[in-house]
Q: What sequence folds into this?
């Protein structure tokens, strides 16, 4: 379920912060019985309001508070332990089928599972990349770099490493950026996907050229 509700576009279009707060409160109220999820829904809706109305100052300030509250205080190890337990429960409760292959009979089961750690990583990466695109402020870029590093602790992907490398490069850490994007290329290749986009980025970094968002 999306944390954004259908009423959001109206306060955004009107740039009415009071209306946006009421809409966010409604989103909070839809999470009956889950106080933390409700508060997060409220904060996320307000963050979207500041984003889409172009209030950069409020957007940066609220983003920092949002990720500090819901992500930076969370231990990646604890989330991975939760994922491990959830995976075991899924396996235990999964429907099992008997399959015959020649003279061999196997018991198999299909398990669908989305790790919570992966969601944490993706959200942190999205926040870090937005800061990368929007600002050259050294302090804000440092914060975004911290988010990208935290994202990698939750779940390492080429996409997060791409963001991390770009933030490093933007802060004149060329050697480290090259090291990170090279690792991203290896990981992307090992997963069987095209590395063309990352290869181009690597060559630009090596030659000291500017890179696009």
A:
């Amino acid at each position: 379920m999306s944390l954004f509700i259908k009423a959001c576009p109206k306060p955004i279009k009107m740039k009415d912060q009071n209306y946006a707060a009421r809409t966010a409160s409604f989103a909070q109220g839809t999470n009956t019985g889950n106080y933390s999820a409700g508060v997060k829904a409220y904060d996320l809706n307000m963050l979207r309001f500041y984003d889409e109305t172009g209030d950069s100052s409020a957007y940066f300030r609220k983003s920092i508070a949002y990720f500090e509250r819901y992500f930076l205080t969370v231990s990646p190890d604890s989330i991975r332990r939760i994922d491990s337990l959830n995976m075991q429960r899924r396996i235990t409760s999964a429907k099992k089928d008997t399959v015959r292959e020649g003279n061999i009979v196997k018991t198999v089961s299909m398990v669908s599972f989305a790790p919570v750690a992966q969601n944490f990583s993706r959200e942190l990466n999205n926040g870090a990349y937005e800061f990368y695109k929007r600002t050259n402020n050294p302090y804000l870029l440092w914060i975004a770099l911290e988010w990208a590093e935290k994202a990698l602790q939750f779940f390492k992907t080429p996409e997060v490493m791409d963001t991390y490398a770009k933030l490093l490069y933007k802060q004149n850490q060329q050697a480290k950026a090259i090291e990170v994007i090279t690792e991203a290329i290896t990981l992307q290749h090992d997963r069987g996907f095209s590395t063309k986009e990352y290869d181009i980025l690597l060559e630009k970094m090596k030659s000291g050229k500017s890179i696009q968002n």
Q: What stands out?
A: The chain has a mean pLDDT of 83. Strands lie at 96-101, 104-109. The longest strand covers residues 96-101. Residues 1-54 form one domain.
